[in-house]
Automatic annotation (TrEMBL):
Residues 15-294 form the Septin-type G domain. Pfam families: Septin. This is Septin-type G domain-containing protein. The keyword Nucleotide-binding applies. Its main location: other. GO terms for biological process: ascospore formation. It is found in: Bud neck. GO terms for cellular component: ascospore wall; cellular bud neck; meiotic spindle; prospore membrane; septin complex; spindle microtubule. Residues 302-311 have a biased composition (Basic and acidic residues). It comes from Huiozyma naganishii (strain ATCC MYA-139 / BCRC 22969 / CBS 8797 / KCTC 17520 / NBRC 10181 / NCYC 3082 / Yp74L-3).
Amino acid sequence: MLNTEEIRHRRYAQKGVQFNMLLLGPRGIGKKTFLSNLCQMEDIAALATENNSNRDSKLPYTNYAIKIQEMLTPVALNVHVFDIGLQINNAHTSNKVRHFIQEFYDRILADEIKISRDKKTLKQSDGRIHVCLYFIDGNSNGLNELDIDMLSKIKEFVNIFIVIGKADRYRENELQPLKENIRRDLEANNLRSFPFGDDRLRDIFPDGEDTLISDIHPFAVICGDRFESTDPNNGEPKSIFRYNYLDEKISVERRDVSNFIYLKGILLGSHLHELKETTNDIFYEKYRTKKLLEQKNSPAQQEDKENESRVGTRGTTLTSESMDYHAVDPDHQLTCVGTVYEKNQIIEAYQNKIVGLEKMIHDISEEPSPATKTVSTECE
């Protein structure tokens, strides 16, 4: 007979989980191929929806809605893929991407403050980005100006993983210096990627190495452009890629080939729920608090306060002749004063909350991450 925990887990597994990703990077760096390999689907083009906006404030992107089965739990992936750096002048590109991320926060916030709302519909329409995979080509031997500008604009709104695309272009002795240069540039420009803390590779796979995940980040990935069986006795398709100089078939899920399988395990297994929780509890909560604070300090709110103040003042300076017609109800005066006091208290509480959230984001990289679940994905 199943115990309570097993029943809860089974019901949760049947419902599945929604996970929203943003893939950013230059065209041709392998973002769509990575997504195909991640989902073990050879043809994902049929699942694509093109969003070619003609508005100056928008960037064209491709959206993918993909359902996969991982660890017996259905995962509904909602993925947005942006090609960046295509314009002659990319000065506004970073702001457009930031606004794209913020729009999902604004939609949730608008629904939350409604008097009547459908929580089920709200959950289903939650498009908040849980993680951004930022692909770089490494040609600048680190981060370039657009990379730095982009990461600085979005770091307050989303979890960020840095990914080195098409890593087979580099020799093994070239990758580690490149990763070190990227980490150096991140630190020098006060840029934040996801804090893995003390999480190790063995948290992803039980037989994994006792290596800190932060030591292999940025993730160098190699992906295949076709699905073939690497074992003649096994009909299950596995994504493979070919060494151009050897024409040898090698599975991309081999741990000694690239960091792809580790990144897959992090995204779809060990850190999936942590990424969702961080998005809701830290990034969105901070954004929500600031927005509500701005509303409290808006000109309309200030005008209300001034009107309340004038009402209270008139109530204390009215003459006895006019008292019968214009006297203000003392209870109403107290209500006005109390309302102003309560708003000031709310503003102060919001300000303290923002300070606390900013400190949490700053300190989280120095603290061990919550216990993570393991992924039993088989590798070759």
